[in-house]
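Lab meeting, item 3. Inverse folding demo.
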């Protein structure tokens, strides 16, 4: 539905977006996720028509929005794109209904049609009872929903979200994530969701494009990018990670890699190979696993299981629903959450099982 090819944006000598290629399917929400300055908002502004690219092409439903080579540029008001801004961008002197209906008045719809559409969209998002309320009297979550209603009211073909929940507190952000999911069941929506919040991207998007320095490192479903990261940057950026330093003991014909981490209970740790690993016996390596796949065993001997390492609690913090423990495993120090109902103490020895299908071996060489 949306096709982006070789999209480039420079500010002087700085390249904010570097030859970006992306596709968005009909009815899909694609999240652009990455740290500040990675180029995700700049890419969104070029799709909206709020910034002109230095190279590349954007096409939507077969219509070219912009092509630098062919000197095509469709202005933003003619792209039928809805945008929800980080700052809400609501007019404080207008009521909720007036804010939502403003885009329709710009399109010269009749008063009766404006009133009908405003009522429909406000009822859709649960704000029909606040139609005559002034915007400054609303909560942050209500203002965000008004901004969403204003973007939906003229029935855009493509929705763009620019960090829409970043000004809300944690409770409201969680609520808005769920409300957006509910809204998608009622309204067919194709969109791009820009965020630096990993939880937002993983929970609201059908696919996630992870960006860094103007490039996309990986595109995939939330499960794919979380469980099978393509680069070390994706691995470390998405969620928590436990990294153990070690040395490659052997590489099996099927690609499984045995790594000695200096704390094995019964033989080297076995792991699948990380992308482009090139590891050989004797190489320095990192064994990586998400902390939720690390199981604390009852004893300290491993109970005859494979992929078990010995650890010692160096530091312990009570965090309410769990203990946050800094655990020494061989030459590595990692942070793990231990159940709150356990009796833990600093200096305690542990046996930790690393789930085989969730353990990955990587070279120490940094990824591009």
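The presenter then showed the designed sequence:
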């Amino acid at each position: 539905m949306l096709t982006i090819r070789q999209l480039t944006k420079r500010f002087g000598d700085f390249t904010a977006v570097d030859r970006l290629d992306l596709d968005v399917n009909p009815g899909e929400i694609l999240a652009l996720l990455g740290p500040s300055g990675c180029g995700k908002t700049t890419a969104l502004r070029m799709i909206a028509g709020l910034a002109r690219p230095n190279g590349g092409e954007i096409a939507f439903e077969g219509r070219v929005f912009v092509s630098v080579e062919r000197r095509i540029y469709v202005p933003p008001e003619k792209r039928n794109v809805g945008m929800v801004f980080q700052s809400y961008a609501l007019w404080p002197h207008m009521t909720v209904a007036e804010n939502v209906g403003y885009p329709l008045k710009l399109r010269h719809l009749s008063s009766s049609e404006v009133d009908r559409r405003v009522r429909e969209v406000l009822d859709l998002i649960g704000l029909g009872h606040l139609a005559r309320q002034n915007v400054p009297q609303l909560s942050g979550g209500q203002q965000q929903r008004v901004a969403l209603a204003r973007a939906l009211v003229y029935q855009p073909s493509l929705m763009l979200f620019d960090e829409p929940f970043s000004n809300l507190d944690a409770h409201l952000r969680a609520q808005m994530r769920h409300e957006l999911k509910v809204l998608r069941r009622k309204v067919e929506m194709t969109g791009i969701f820009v965020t630096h919040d990993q939880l937002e991207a993983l929970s609201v998007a059908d696919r996630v494009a992870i960006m860094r320095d103007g490039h996309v490192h990986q595109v995939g479903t939330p499960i794919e990018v979380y469980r099978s990261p393509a680069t070390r940057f994706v691995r470390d950026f998405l969620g928590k990670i436990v990294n153990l330093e070690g040395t490659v003991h052997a590489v099996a014909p099927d690609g499984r890699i045995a790594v000695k981490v200096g704390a094995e209970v019964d033989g080297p740790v076995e792991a699948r190979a990380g992308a482009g690993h090139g590891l050989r016996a004797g190489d320095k390596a990192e064994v990586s696993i998400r902390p939720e796949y690390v199981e604390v065993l009852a004893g300290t001997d491993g109970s005859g299981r494979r992929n078990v390492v010995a650890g010692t609690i160096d530091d312990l913090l009570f965090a309410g629903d769990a203990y946050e423990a800094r655990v020494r495993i061989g030459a590595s120090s990692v942070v793990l959450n231990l159940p709150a109902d356990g009796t833990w103490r600093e200096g305690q020895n542990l046996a930790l099982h690393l789930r085989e299908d969730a353990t990955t071996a990587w070279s120490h060489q940094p990824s591009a």
